[in-house]
Amino acid sequence: MIPELHFAWMEISILISLAGSLWLKFTKNRDIAYKRCLITCALVFLTAVGGWIDFMLLQTFEATDQFSLIKLMWNRDIFTIDELSAPLLPLAALLYLLTVLSTLKTKGHRFSFSSTLLSEAILFATLSSREPWVIICLLSVATIPPYLEMKTNRESPRVYVLHMGLFIALLVSGGILSGFGDTHGAISLVAGALLTTAALLRSGIVPLHCWMTDLFEKVTFGTALLFVTPMTGAYAVMRLVYPIAPAWALQGIALISLTTAVYAAGMAFVQKEARRFFCYLFLSHSSLVLVGLEMATPLGLTGGLCVWISVGISLAGFALTFRSVEARIGKISLTEYHGLYEHTPTLAALFLVTGLASIGFPGTLGFIATELLVEGAIEVYPLIGTAVLIATALNSIAILRAYFRVFTGTRHIASISLRVRVPEHVAILILVALILGGGLYPQPGISSRYHAAEEMIQLRETVFHHAKSEEKISETGRPAAQPPLISL
Amino acid sequence: MNTETVFYFLGVCVVASPALLFAVFGITSLMDKPIGERLIARATQTMVLIGLFASMIILGLMLTLGIRYVPIELGNWVVIPEQHFHFHLKFIFDRLSIPFCILSFILCGTVGAFASRYLHREPGFNRFFVCYSIFLLGMVVSSLAGTIETLFFGWELVGLSSALLVAFFHEKLNPVRNGMRIWTIYRIADAAFLLAALTLHHLTGAGDFVGLMGTGSWPDGHATISEQHALMVGILLLIAAAGKSALVPFSSWLPRAMEGPTPSSAIFYGSLSVHLGAYLLLRVSPILELSLTLRIAVISLGLISAIYGTLVARVQTDIKSALAFASLTQVSIIVVEIGCGLRYIALIHIIGHACLRTLQLLRAPTLLHDYHSLENAIGSHLSQKKSFLIRVIPDRYRHRLYRFALERGYLDALSNQFIVGPFISVFCWCDRMERRWNKLLSGEEPNETPPIITRSESMEEYL
């Protein structure tokens, strides 16, 4: 029996987002739409935080909603929160809230608030679910809003459609072949490979990453940011692949991810457009998260989970700063020096802090996370640890290069004030506070992630233990005790 | 109140004063509420004096009570007991850290006072002092670090502030490019340092210097790892030290660092930051003792860098670059001393050299005036006699040597040709291929990118 939260936090969050999306669909005035969207996002954030606190107070590995409508109707726990997803929900809600908050009113006509809330609802449902088929369906549905935006912007969606079509096909075929739940985790090699490829494609692993640069070029920065930053690809890996993949397969995924991390870091260094630069930077970091997740050792997995949170926060802040700069001078070219420092010194400082946090600079949220990741990697293969450091070093060089290109050089001449607006300032300051606060007092976060990592490893071991005992039974013909039902 | 409590209180004061300074400057800047020049100068003065007096009192107490080692335990910053992972926050006051810490406070205080007048009404006054506070904090943390991870913490802060200060006059392109170059070299060195730190952590199960160096305070400690491991970790630390102290092959950043404002050049590259690599080698000197190969590597690198520095310094046409290479020569000699096991001599050499170089660099803007005063005082021109080497070496070789020195050992050209150039070319090629692939998939024309201009001056200009 899974413990219950004191309230239906997850369902309420999803319902608020859906209701908000519907409400904004019929709101024509941009200013009013902005305010309503902000209120909705704030409410979702509050419920997400409420759910998280409630979950922490229960001191359990997993919990479901109480007074759940779905449970009443179908007598099934679709939405279950556990130690992996518990902090991801408020993080996702915060990301949406701050993205909306930092959206300038002048950009309201390009950034669809209604569609944003719809994608928030889908993301929330994905992160709240552990049922493989529900995750597969939701991951597939989540690909639709960016496609619609591309169509609205009259951009060719072919690259995106080809990749996402393949992603959905792989997910569904992998799901069908695996027959989740029937064999208590032991699935065929082909099914596992299909699911792994799908999850890696969604994470943008080389050579299946081209959709990401295409996406960043063809939709608004906000939409692209919200589509990739929650790292649902990594979530899919943890839910669909991690519990059932053998150790050699996980190490293989780690190696592929590591190659992507180094390659993307190198590519970020030579980019000439800010959006592509951010895309590669993000790709490199999200691949590092995967490296940690696939280590399958307590330290490596803890490092991966910590880097997930730190990268999510810091790169979101970094992207919001980039977005604020872009809102002032249009798409940013990195071939020239824009000289924006004197206009926006605060944005420059925030840009630097968030960028440095993403590479694990001392005193920031990512410092201990990166240390754990490298230490976990050294435990398994010393060379992997070295490669992680190379990727981090390249990323840091790319970040400072971007800083110099955007903020230094001959002073930019502007006829209007380009100073940072209060909502933008507040949005990025909140992220900076989290980055520095988490960096200076990291113990609670690390303990929580370590506990989650241990539980995940234990769950994985249980699945393999049962798979082995089943094999033994089939060989000896002796009956065995009924294994407990394990939810992936 | 017992002695331990007094030491603890004073030790916390030493570390907390620069941290508080950085917190005040940093938070006000992030909140977009920069404070005035006078307040900045006063705050800097106060915090530096608090830190300096506290560390001097600790020194006095240690000398009076005959204590050679005072640890200040701040507990575990992060701990995962089941995995034996802990990030221990510990600062130590011993015969190596106290002189270096006091030196840092004195020189930073001097330069802070100098800069508050030198940069008066400069638009970047606040920015300079933010970087200055990061630097001061980094230096103090590095000097007093009791664990290798804490040392890395301070090391990174010093690196960041240095790169930003070189690019201080950011409306001009050259300082920015040079800042970028320095950051790149520092990051390579930092990666080597972090790898060494984690390997040590992995080998000994702790990052604590006491654990690493065995029993006995500096310089009497004996490392407990095997010779092979000592060689591996030592080489990584040597790379890190070479990057920070601008030893060959990383020397090209030192003259570039002189693009920053004079006070920062004086303090960062001439006196403190440039010695941090040597300080690291001194701190881990028990490891060097374990491997003869490692010691030979340290001495060789020091000798090569010293010869390089002295040759190149002789042909520089501006005083700051000449002083930079002169610094390199002295730092390299210090490295040789460390390799030879002369730890106290190396420490004294660092202190003397740092003070002299700070004075020389701070006087650099008035060099001509100083020369005139000197010549007036002695009543004739200064001697222009040719050196012994110039008289002995045949013309043909002398010209080659001159060319070599003028081109600064071709280090920039070589690194651009064999490292930066191929790296950029490979990734630019990948970028072009990716764009073509996307074009093929989408049936659209790709965004054409401007042609890449390749020049040899800077890594940045490849882009």
Question: What is this entry, summarized?
Answer:
With 488 residues, chain A is an all-alpha fold. Helix content of chain A is 72%, strand content 1%. Chain B is built from 18 helices and two strands.
Question: Tags for this entry?
Answer:
heterodimer, A: 488 residues, mainly alpha, two-stranded antiparallel sheet, 20 helices, disordered C terminus, B: 463 residues, globular
Q: What is the secondary structure topology, with strand pairs?
A:
The complex is a heterodimer of chains A (488) and B (463).
Chain A: H1 9-25, H2 30-58, E1 62-64, H3 69-74, E2 80-82, H4 88-101, H5 113-128, H6 132-141, H7 144-152, H8 158-178, H9 189-203, H10 210-218, H11 221-228, H12 232-241, H13 247-270, H14 274-293, H15 298-329, H16 345-358, H17 365-380, H18 382-407, H19 422-440, H20 443-476
Antiparallel strand pairs in A: 1-2
Chain B: H1 3-30, H2 37-65, E1 70-80, E2 85-93, H3 97-118, H4 125-144, H5 148-166, H6 173-204, H7 209-213, H8 227-244, H9 253-256, H10 262-283, H11 285-290, H12 292-313, H13 319-339, H14 343-363, H15 367-378, H16 388-392, H17 395-406, H18 411-442
Helix pairs in contact in B: 1-2, 1-4, 2-3, 3-4, 3-10, 3-14, 4-5, 4-10, 5-6, 5-10, 6-8, 8-10, 8-12, 10-13, 10-14, 12-13, 12-17, 13-14
